[in-house]
Amino acid sequence: MVVCGDNALAQRVTKELASVYRQHVTVVLPSLRGGSHGPQIAGLAGRRGMSVETVEARVPDDHALIQAGIERASALALTSGDDQLNIYIALRARRINPQVRLVIRMFNRNLGRYLADLLDRAALLSGARPSGDGDGDAAGSPGEVPDATTTVLSDSDTAAPSIVAAAVVGSDKVMHADGLLLRAKERTLRTVDRRNPLCTLALMPATEDTRNSEGASDDSDDEPDEEQHRDVRRRRGASGGREGDGGPVLLPDQEDLAGLPPEREAVVLEAITRSSRTSAVRAPRLPRMLAVKHLFSRRLRYSMLAMTGLVLALAAVNWFVSRETPLHAAYVTLLDLFAINDPNIEEPPAEQVLQLLAGLAGMMLLPLLLAVVLESYGSFRKAAALPVPPRGLSGHVVLVGLGKVGKHVLERLLELNIPVVCIEQNEEARGMAVARRHRVPTLIADVTDDGVLELAKIKRSRALLALTSTDGINLEASLNARQIKPELRVVMRLFDDAFAATVYRTLRDSYPAAQTRSRSVSALAAPAFAGAMMGRQVLGSISVGRRVLVFAAVEVRGNPLLQDRTVEQAFQTESWRVVALDTASEEERRQDLSSVSSTGAGELEWRLHPGYVLKAGDRVVVAATRRGLSRLLAAGPAQRGSRPVRRAEGASGDDAARLPDPRTP
Predict the structure, then answer these.
(1) What residue numbers bound the domain in which 594 lies?
(2) CB atoms within 10 A of CB 421
(3) For 582-622, what is each residue's pLDDT tens digit?
(4) Residues 136 and 234 in one domain
(5) Total domains, the chain
């Protein structure tokens, strides 16, 4: 594996590949002694148990790439913040090695799509086989043509689901897929069915009380037979997790759950739907729906009411004096009011005085009409631009910062139908267009100014997301919000890991009843970049104890472990479980299953019947261990005949991600 970059993302991707996937990694960077993260990457190169090499080059040109071994590399990650530099390196790398898998960090997603298509076409013309599903192996054996894929990722877009999850459900065990938030929650077996979970992910180790209750129930017979003894041993093994480590049992079957005490805990997968906050107050969607009180100020409304009363009084007096019909009296009064009537020289003095009063009232009407026009115009402009937080708004999320990260977080919140109030100082920020398009209540102000958080109704909000590019502003906004509402859930974007850890511990100790989360975009995005380098369409991962479950999209076609099997038959305990089915046709399938479809409706069916037979054209989402996912992908047609991804010498680990040789039984 080759990584190009000198930033936090490059450091974390390198660490992920070397420590989790046990890969040999070569990092190309300008300097090991300076730069943004040169010393940190140099520390990884010298760490025991990791196979990391470095190549110093001011610009990753052809010579530097060849020195890094691009000709025989399985994958190349380009993590620079400069889109043009990443494009240059990608084109050079594809020319040198048409078979290498490319993972490119791009801010411009439209340009990224065009670039991915161009690079895949180049790989196709050179003899490699582009594969859009990302399930291919990394490097082919001699005589075999491996899959050459190009994956374009945005670190902020990749990190957005985890940031939203921390704010909405306050949990780290969360995955975002198909416009839904999926969380892993520990429940007792007594309460599992009440929550209607999607599936059971793990059976937690038994406590001393549950072990005693299991032993009492198992040994109730005086002379149990041999089969009962075997059942007791099996259940006690399940209660302690995997043999020898006392950990949780991942992906248990129904036999593991049968007969266990109701106090036993299990980790289940629960869905948080898009319409979980239907009672929230929304801002007006169209200017024409504005009420009169929003168009005109109270003083202007009172002035208009007084002028109307004055005109009616003049019309009544005119009707009484002239003895004409009421309609004629009102008409004459309006003519006098607008100064378009002839002078009443030959009329009685009463009508002359009345005409003078009407003319005076007409002079007062002119500035009033001008004020009505100006104020209504200003109100329409204000309503068409950005609304203010409406009255009665509660249970919303306050989002501070609509930059690169805030824009993607706002899009995720809107997909989940969660009410949000934004605070942004720069009217030209990236996310302002999204806020205007969806008419999101937004305050154009500095969040550090007094009263800004109060205007955002922070007291009635559910969480604060401080996502500006400055650590100091994020910290100040978080501390101010905690002063206003101590139990508020706070998620901060902090760059420095040591600073983030110190802030987190201090806030946790100072506000023990509140939830505080600090997030680094590079730390959240690194697993997705590493997974793409391994050639897997990984939707997310959830940790259970010290083990990890990976959720990935897998094609059924040509995979004997899935095709023509029922959902129940395709399940392998401690390895993988089919949790969802893509219901879209093969021509209309989305490459990115983490986002909601363009129609707004989900395309994944999460509650599959155990007897459903998986067909060749199906695509499924599986929950699997890293080792189980490797076995499952190795059985697919794209994996046969190719050698596995090489692991670093001496690497070990139960769940290390490697693709076993299909020739091995």
Answers:
(1) 536-634
(2) 25
(3) 888 877 777 667 655 544 455 788 888 989 999 998 999 99
(4) no
(5) 4
